[in-house]
Amino acid sequence: LIVVTLLLIVIIHILRIGLHSSRTYDMLICFGVAGAMLFQMFINIGMCIGITPVIGITLPFFSYGGTALVMLLCEIGVILSISRRADLS
Asked: Partner of 73 at 20 to 30 A CA spacing, among 9, 41, 53, 67?
Protein backbone atom coordinates (compact mmCIF):
# COMPACT_ATOMS: atom_id res chain seq x y z
CA LEU A 1 0.00 0.00 0.00
CA ILE A 2 2.89 2.35 0.76
CA VAL A 3 4.52 1.63 -2.60
CA VAL A 4 1.29 2.31 -4.49
CA THR A 5 0.80 5.55 -2.56
CA LEU A 6 4.34 6.73 -3.34
CA LEU A 7 3.93 5.94 -7.03
CA LEU A 8 0.60 7.76 -7.17
CA ILE A 9 2.21 10.81 -5.53
CA VAL A 10 4.91 10.83 -8.22
CA ILE A 11 2.29 10.48 -10.97
CA ILE A 12 0.21 13.32 -9.50
CA HIS A 13 3.28 15.59 -9.42
CA ILE A 14 4.06 14.75 -13.05
CA LEU A 15 0.49 15.62 -14.04
CA ARG A 16 0.74 18.88 -12.07
CA ILE A 17 3.91 19.79 -13.95
CA GLY A 18 2.15 19.04 -17.22
CA LEU A 19 -0.85 21.19 -16.36
CA HIS A 20 1.35 24.15 -15.46
CA SER A 21 3.68 23.92 -18.45
CA SER A 22 3.53 26.72 -20.99
CA ARG A 23 3.88 24.59 -24.13
CA THR A 24 1.42 21.99 -25.37
CA TYR A 25 4.25 19.63 -26.33
CA ASP A 26 5.58 19.64 -22.75
CA MET A 27 2.09 18.94 -21.43
CA LEU A 28 1.70 15.96 -23.77
CA ILE A 29 5.08 14.56 -22.72
CA CYS A 30 4.10 14.81 -19.04
CA PHE A 31 0.73 13.18 -19.64
CA GLY A 32 2.37 10.41 -21.69
CA VAL A 33 4.96 9.62 -19.02
CA ALA A 34 2.30 9.67 -16.28
CA GLY A 35 0.05 7.41 -18.34
CA ALA A 36 2.88 4.96 -19.05
CA MET A 37 3.78 4.81 -15.36
CA LEU A 38 0.14 4.30 -14.39
CA PHE A 39 -0.24 1.55 -16.99
CA GLN A 40 2.92 -0.23 -15.80
CA MET A 41 1.79 0.05 -12.20
CA PHE A 42 -1.67 -1.41 -12.81
CA ILE A 43 -0.41 -4.24 -15.04
CA ASN A 44 2.34 -5.22 -12.60
CA ILE A 45 0.03 -5.17 -9.58
CA GLY A 46 -2.55 -7.14 -11.58
CA MET A 47 0.10 -9.75 -12.41
CA CYS A 48 1.06 -10.06 -8.74
CA ILE A 49 -2.57 -10.43 -7.67
CA GLY A 50 -3.29 -12.87 -10.50
CA ILE A 51 -5.98 -11.00 -12.43
CA THR A 52 -3.85 -10.24 -15.52
CA PRO A 53 -1.50 -12.56 -17.40
CA VAL A 54 2.20 -12.46 -16.57
CA ILE A 55 3.86 -10.47 -19.35
CA GLY A 56 6.99 -9.11 -17.66
CA ILE A 57 6.22 -5.42 -17.16
CA THR A 58 8.21 -4.00 -14.26
CA LEU A 59 6.85 -1.93 -11.40
CA PRO A 60 8.31 1.58 -11.82
CA PHE A 61 11.34 2.24 -9.55
CA PHE A 62 10.91 -1.01 -7.60
CA SER A 63 11.16 -4.08 -9.86
CA TYR A 64 14.47 -5.36 -11.15
CA GLY A 65 14.86 -4.51 -14.80
CA GLY A 66 17.93 -2.67 -15.99
CA THR A 67 16.64 -1.24 -19.26
CA ALA A 68 13.23 -0.34 -17.83
CA LEU A 69 14.86 1.51 -14.94
CA VAL A 70 17.24 3.42 -17.23
CA MET A 71 14.38 4.48 -19.50
CA LEU A 72 12.26 5.53 -16.52
CA LEU A 73 15.10 7.64 -15.15
CA CYS A 74 15.51 9.27 -18.59
CA GLU A 75 11.79 10.05 -18.62
CA ILE A 76 12.01 11.60 -15.15
CA GLY A 77 14.98 13.67 -16.35
CA VAL A 78 12.87 15.06 -19.19
CA ILE A 79 10.06 15.81 -16.72
CA LEU A 80 12.52 17.66 -14.46
CA SER A 81 13.69 19.68 -17.44
CA ILE A 82 10.09 20.59 -18.23
CA SER A 83 9.47 21.52 -14.59
CA ARG A 84 12.27 24.10 -14.73
CA ARG A 85 10.33 25.98 -17.42
CA ALA A 86 6.87 25.46 -15.90
CA ASP A 87 5.24 28.03 -13.64
CA LEU A 88 4.43 25.88 -10.59
CA SER A 89 3.39 28.71 -8.28
From this structure: 53
**Short-list 33, 13, 28, 25, CA closest to 73:** 33
The C-alpha atoms of residue 84 and residue 18 are separated, in whole angstroms, by 12
Between the two ends of the chain, the Cα-to-Cα distance in Å is 30
Classify residue 60 by burial, with Cβ atoms within 10 Å: 0-12, 13-18, 19+: buried
Contact 57, 40 (CB under 8 A): yes
- pLDDT tens column, 5-15: 999 999 999 99
pTM of the model: 0.88
pLDDT at 2: 94
User: What's the half-sphere exposure (Cβ side, CA atoms, 13 Å) at 65?
Assistant: 16
